[in-house]
Amino acid sequence: MSILTAIGKASEIPVYVGASHALHRPPMHAPTDIHGETGLDGTDLLPPPAAAARTSPPAIDAAYAALKGTPPGTAWVVATGAFTNVAALFLKYPDLAGHVKGLSLMGGAIGGGFTPAVLGEVDGVPRVGNWTQFAEFNVLADPEAAATIFSNRELAAKTTLIPLDVTHLVLTTEGVRDLLLYGREEVEKGETPLERTESDRKKGKTKLRTMLVELLMFFAKTYKDVFGITEGPPLHDPLAVAAVLTGVGDQHEIPFCDCDPAGEPGLAQRERYEVSVVTEGTYEDARAGARTGQITVKLLPPGEEGVRIPRSLDIPLFWKVLEECVQRADAAVAAAEAAAGTASN
């Protein structure tokens, strides 16, 4: 709610309290070493929430009502955390799979050179996952939920999966930080204040920009010290949203490539996958080296429907679109502040 408050949308976008633990597992310890105790550590610029999260009706029922209120084949569902709420939604309302246009998930990790992304290593051991050697957090948090989604053939055919193999292609480099802090026009004109001290350079053109970059960079040290990724931290969740933008009307705002880049030029065919999840083992087993939460993918025959897993995307265009979103948020905040000032005078 603090983020929505920061961009002036707290009263327009309802937020509901979701599940407190996995479908069939006890609560899992939150990733506080990555995102901090609040999940949004790293900045003191977040405003107090202007509205509270809702508890009634239950989140699953509210989501169903909202989705069914849209024309068939138009709405996307996006999940950027554990898949528990999404799995519960389609389990309770199976007709929804035929109603939505698609499902976009951020989670899982494939490895094996699926993309050129560096997944990192810990103590000299190459990793696939970010929470254990084999598992990414969102899938490990509720592997049964993930398995439920991927085994639903109707839903799988509408699902886009954005694994670490893709998110680790999109790093928040110094150039990206400048873009988000100061805006595209200033960066293109060479007006970014590179000569300032490091402390001053962290202050963006607006309070909102400074806050967003502080949140983005909070876990940079973890990725550098733990995983050996030094260019900047990867960006995870926004890519699941960006994948949805490729289906807005006829405009492919941010192209994602779902073909094997090593394939013969001109003969590339779209790829679709059968995705399996290791559900055996506890959270403790996973920490001890078990493959609990690991996903494996099997390439399906050409033309067969399955999960879409992109191998690449237009990264410069992605950052351009993201910065344009920040521009619109800046404008909305400025308008709201102006209106509040007029009302008080």
From TrEMBL:
GO terms for biological process: purine nucleoside catabolic process. The keyword Repressor does not apply. GO terms for molecular function: purine nucleosidase activity. InterPro entries: Inosine/uridine_hydrolase_dom, IUNH, Ribo_hydro-like. Keywords: Glycosidase, Hydrolase. It holds the Pfam family IU_nuc_hydro. GO terms for cellular component: cytosol. SUPFAM superfamilies: Nucleoside hydrolase. The keyword Translocase does not apply. Residues 2-320 form the Inosine/uridine-preferring nucleoside hydrolase domain. Gene3D superfamilies: Ribonucleoside hydrolase-like. Belongs to the IUNH family. This is Uridine nucleosidase. It comes from Corynascus novoguineensis.
